[in-house]
Each structure stands twice: as structure tokens, then as C-alpha cells.
Amino acid sequence: MNDQDNLDLELNDAEMHLYSRQILLDGWDVDAQEKLKFANVLIVGAGGIGCTSAELLARAGVGKITLIDSDTIEISNLQRQIAFTPNDLGCFKAEVLAKRLTQLNPHIVVEYIVNKLVSENVDELIQHQDLILDGCDNFTTRYLVNASCKKNQIPLISASAIGFQGQLFMIDSDSACYECLFPKDQFENEGMRCAESGVLATTPVVMASLQAHHALLYLGLDRSPLREKLLLWDGMSMKQRILHFEKDTNCSTCQASLSVNSVKFDTLPQ
Ligand SMILES: [Zn+2]
């Protein structure tokens, strides 16, 4: 069954009430709110980034949220992974977060997958989404998500946080990609993870809030202020910088997505 069958076509009275502070906004209206309701978003990682961005999207009214994460909750996660409590230790992050989202907003559909995102399942999970939010904690997954989003022409908003610093960027089907910005051969083996390097409680929450905010702009208003831009947030000085990046003509991911999508085009019926 199509999950959309569970959703009414328009906002009902309870939803109008729940989202009234958004609908009243100048620059946001019922149309924007309905676009959120019909959106499918995949969130990669239910850690420090995913906990916050998933909660904000659920509260704001994104109609279908899918979570993927294979980890269980450890005591050192509780300092920043705001969906979890000491009672959840040992449980799967994706499952506990999904339950919380459903409790927060009964009008949305939440699915979760307890598994790693790998080359065998990534395309299947990404290709039917409207938007991907990446909040994973390692370069291998980040490159994999980037490549699949380019190949399947699905927009991606990616956030990361380490120590006192965070990064955020957006790419879409025609833009430069993560690998144009950080060539894989130079960065894949860096192995920097917040699990190993320390992170202040607030840093991932700040970055995930910005990521969720951008997702609402994109889904509701079709705005992409960080497309091909890298936002750098420094939590020590509280300064942020936004750098533009461009397509690297040598980027293998962009070249591969071009050839895949030109094949698709060539095989369209005349
Ligand atoms: Zn690229």
C-alpha cells in the first residue's frame, strides 16, 4: 500500500490548529504547509544531528519521515542526542527516535530502518524521496549518500558537527556535489568522527536546527539558499561564513551521474 493513502489530501482542522503559527506567517501559508504534508524525507543517522532535525521536521509537519541508523544508544550519546533518555540505553536509535516522532505528531507517517546505509541499499532508499538530510558521523557514508543523491537526482542537505564547529551545505541534481568540494581521495581516510573527537552538546543541535530550517524552506517554499554553498559555523566565536563552491570537472561522481542520466534521457520513448 502506498503510504500516501494514509494521508488526507488537505489539512484537517486539527492540523490547521497544530500548524497555525506557521500558517499565519507572512511568507508561509496553507499551500506551503500542504507541501510539507506531502513531502517524503529520509534522514540518514539518528545521532546528534538526526535527533534534532527529525524532531523539528516532525513538529513542523513533514508528512513522511524515514530514519536509518544501525546503532544502539550508549550513555555517552545522551549529552547531545536529545531524543534519548537513560531508559533507552541499549535500544536502537532509529526505533526510539521514530517512536518519539510519532508521539510528538500523530498526523505524520514515520518509518525506521535498523541497518547501515551501504551501496547495496542506498539507491533503493534514496530514489523515492523528495529530500535527503544527512547527519551521519563518517566520511564513507557521506560520500555514499552524495553519490546516490547525484545519481538519482534527489536533493541533499548535509550537516556535520565536530568539537565547536559545524558545516552545512546543499546540493541538487544540477549542482556541484560534496565530492567536488572535498575530493574523495583526500578526505575519505581522515576518519574524524564525533565519537572519537569530542563534541560540545550544543554544536550538533545548532547545525541540525539550521539543516531542518533549510529543509522547511526548500520543501515549503522551494528556496535553496545554501545550494552549492558551504556554511561554516564556529561555535567559539559564534561567527558563520558561507563559501560558494563549484563543479569540479574531474569529479567522478558528477561525471557518473551525467552519464547515468543521459542514458535515461536517451531511452525515453519518442
Ligand atoms: Zn561532484
From TrEMBL:
InterPro entries, alphabetized: ThiF/MoeB/HesA (IPR045886), ThiF_NAD_FAD-bd (IPR000594), Ubiquitin-activating_enz (IPR035985)
Pfam families: ThiF
Molecular function in Gene Ontology: nucleotidyltransferase activity; sulfotransferase activity; thiosulfate-cyanide sulfurtransferase activity; ubiquitin-like modifier activating enzyme activity
Domain THIF-type NAD/FAD binding fold: 19-252
GO cellular component, one term: cytosol
Superkingdom field: Bacteria
Family: Belongs to the HesA/MoeB/ThiF family.
Protein name as annotated: Molybdopterin biosynthesis protein (MoeB) OR thiamin-thiazole moiety synthesis (ThiF)
Lineage: Bacteria, Pseudomonadati, Pseudomonadota, Gammaproteobacteria, Moraxellales
